[in-house]
Specification:
Enzyme class: oxidoreductase
CATH superfamily of the largest domain: NAD(P)-binding Rossmann-like Domain
Strand content: 5-15%
Oligomer: single chain
Shape: globular
CATH class of the largest domain: Alpha Beta
Protein name: NAD(P)H dehydrogenase (Quinone)
Helix content: 40-55%
Distance between the termini: 40 Å
Largest sheet: 7 strands, parallel
Order of helices and strands: EHEEHEHEHEHHEHEHEHHHH
Number of strands: 9
InterPro entries: NAD(P)-bd_dom_sf, NmrA-like, NmrA-type_oxidoreductase
Keywords: Oxidoreductase
Pfam families: NmrA
Strand order of the largest sheet: 3-2-1-4-5-6-8
Radius of gyration: 19 Å
Number of domains: 2
Number of helices: 12
Length: 283
């Protein structure tokens, strides 16, 4: 039984491969990657796999029984790329696809939702058994900004008092590995999020507590937040997208209290305090 992982050299993909190796033999895992040289040392079979090269995808998927389709990081190209992979999987005889979608993709106001929904529809139309892992926000999406916030003297954003039920990537990676190596998940849709929610004000307070430096949260209009993001070097399109995602967070689009992630893990999700501590230790 071969398990293929797309985007295996990405931040989530590497973690999934490591978690899979804890559950099955390494020779059962195949890393599907755009640049094979980046997969050196992963300890599993590596195959070239470019989401954009539809003519080569089916060949790379030969012999793969289960496929974890990690969503592409090329926003705006995802629906096409994912459809290419799904068609190739059908040609190659893949028996099951697990897809990393978006939390509450069917009613989210996040601009990312459309491409995830298009992929979900392509999976339904493919006839291949599938499972949807609708991943919530990675806590690292926010803790990556800690160093800059401390330097600037404030944590800024446009999320207001929105409730954010995030979890670190490792929790989502572990859940994916559990689904891929256990029974009873075909046809399921999992809304995956952290057990405890926080606001960005709460996040700023936690950073203040751990550093001993007073770090207020400053809520900004969407346009002002986008302007600040552009001023620190982010491309305009990406800056506007991030600011827009924060506005969606203000509407609780990143909130979920169903406990489905911790149920899959068999433990509580990693708390915010631990992810903040890890981020501070790494900076």
């Amino acid at each position: 039984m071969k398990i293929g992982v797309t985007g295996a050299t990405g931040q989530l993909g590497r973690m999934v491969v490591d978690k899979l190796k804890e559950k099955v033999s390494a020779d059962s895992v195949v890393a599907l990657v755009r640049n094979p040289e980046k997969a050196a040392g992963m300890g599993v079979e590596v195959r070239s796999f470019d989401y954009n090269q539809s003519e080569n995808l089916a060949l790379s998927l030969q012999g793969i029984d289960k496929l974890l389709l990690i969503s592409s990081n090329e926003i705006g190209q995802r629906a096409k790329q994912h459809t290419n992979i799904i068609h190739a999987a059908k040609q190659a005889g893949v028996q099951w696809i697990v897809y990393t979608s978006l939390l509450h993709a069917d009613n989210s106001t996040l601009s990312l939702a459309g491409e995830h929904l298009a992929t979900e529809e392509a999976l339904k139309e493919s006839g291949i058994p599938y499972t949807l892992l609708r991943n919530g926000w990675y806590t690292e999406n926010y803790t990556a900004s800690i160093a800059g916030a401390l330097s600037a003297g404030a944590f800024v954003g446009s999320a207001g008092d929105g409730k954010i039920s995030s979890a670190p990537r490792m929790d989502f990676a572990e859940a994916a590995a559990i689904v891929l190596t256990s029974e009873g998940h075909a046809g399921k849709v999992y809304e995956l999020a952290g057990d405890q929610y926080y606001t960005l004000k709460d996040l700023a307070a936690e950073i203040s507590k751990q550093t001993g430096k007073e770090l207020p949260y400053q809520n900004l209009p969407e346009s002002e937040y986008a302007r600040i993001l552009k001023s620190i070097g982010l491309p305009e399109t990406f800056a506007l997208a991030i600011a827009g995602w924060d506005v969606s967070a203000s509407h609780d689009d990143l909130f979920d209290n169903s406990g489905q992630l911790s149920a899959l893990l068999g433990r509580s999700t990693t708390p915010l305090s631990k992810v903040v501590a890890d981020a501070l230790a790494a900076k």
